[in-house]
Structures are given as C-alpha cells and as structure tokens.
Amino acid sequence: MTDSRYLKRTIVKEEIESRYLGEKRTLRIYLPPGYNELLSYPVVYCQDGEEFFNFGRIATTANRIILDEGAEPFIIVGVQVDVSVRTQEYAPFGDRFKAYTSCFAEEIIPYVEEKYPVRRSPQERVLAGDSLGGSVSLHLALLYPDLFTRVISMSGAYYSASQEIYAAAEDLSWLSIWMIVGLQETAFEADTGTYDFVQLNRDTRDLLEKRCALVSYQEKDGHHQWGFWQKELPEALLYFLQEN
C-alpha cells in the first residue's frame, strides 16, 4: 500500500506564450516536500510532461525518494506536448524541431528560473525523456551544452538522423547520461516505421562513449511503455539527485 505521505504533492500549472512555436505551452511544476522559496533546488525538466506525471507517477516517486531514500529535494518541470505534432517537435527531421528546442532553452528555462528558486548551473539541471523524448533531451544538451549536461533517457528513439548528429560531435566529456532500454523492444512500431530500439540504444551508447561521455547504460526485461519506465524512474532520478 502506498504511504499517504507520498501522495501529498504540490503541483502547479503554468502557461507560457511561445514566440518560437506561435502558441501557448502548458507546464506542470512539482514542488518538493518542505518547499521554501528562500532555498534553491536542482530541477528536472521532462519531455511529455503530462505522461511523466500521469503514467510515470513522477511526483509520487519524487516524494518517496526525497522523504525516504536520500534524494536532495528537487523541482520537476513537465513540458506538455501535443501528441499529433510530437514527432515534428522531438525528431531532428521534424519541421517544428528548431522551434521546439529554441522554445525549451530560450523561453521555458528563463521563465522557470524567474518564477522558481531553481539552481542555474548545468550540473543542477536534468533533462528527462522517454522514446523520442529521450533523444530530443540529448539533442538539447548538444545544442545548449552551457545549459544542460545531464540526461535521463528511457528507451530513447535514436533514429539514424539523431545518430548522425551525435557522431559529428567531437568531445562529449562534459556529458553525463543515464540510459535504459527494454529487451522486448526489438521490433517497436513507431509512426515512422518499425525499429529495433535495443540496437539503436547500443549504437548510441557506443557513439557517446567513443566521444568520452559518461554513460550509465542498462538493458532489462521490458516493453516500450510506461509500465516499464515507471519502475526505473527512481533509480534514474537518484543517479543524479542522491545527496552525498
């Protein structure tokens, strides 16, 4: 049975007007137990924000690891996406990719940092995503290394267009990435085709390690779905947010 302390969550909805996307974008902000505006907090930015909260149960998980497992209190920002244009925003070949990544780095980050006491060093920001959300998180880090150096990638959709971009990088020694993929993801049907996500993740791991990135990589029994990723979220978050 879930401890009732884990369910007492403070989640605020915000809305920003994006000039890059030409529309409003909703954010869900999780504030940790004992939140105090006079303190400062690390921050986790999630692609597919609503799914992280609704299916990943990230707020409940955050409460638990903060209260019971030694995680430093942190803030979560879930960035909503319209699933009908998700691939266009998250994939580097999408026609909204540049607008989305610009909105994320140049509008969402300043908005959050103006309104909430989040820390502003790259080591105190974590990007998190599943599938294409994982790959766009890595793209954001490569596009804005002065902002992002830490990435959580769950079953990243590392298509060839993404791998070509990673391969063009020379030195990624500044990057730390936590990766996991399910062993049952060898023939996943996406909107752009059928892919072996295990091989895509292995190849991407190799690309990153050859460029001196710090990679924590795992393969476990699991399918391309939140039932798998939800169980792995605590370990992913603690990898970056465990208090020493």
Automatic annotation (TrEMBL):
InterPro entries hit by this protein: AB_hydrolase_fold, Esterase-like, Mycobacterial_A85_antigen
Superkingdom: Bacteria
Signal peptide: none
Pfam families in the cross-refs: Esterase
Protein's UniProt name: Enterochelin esterase
Source species of the chain: Paenibacillus xylanivorans
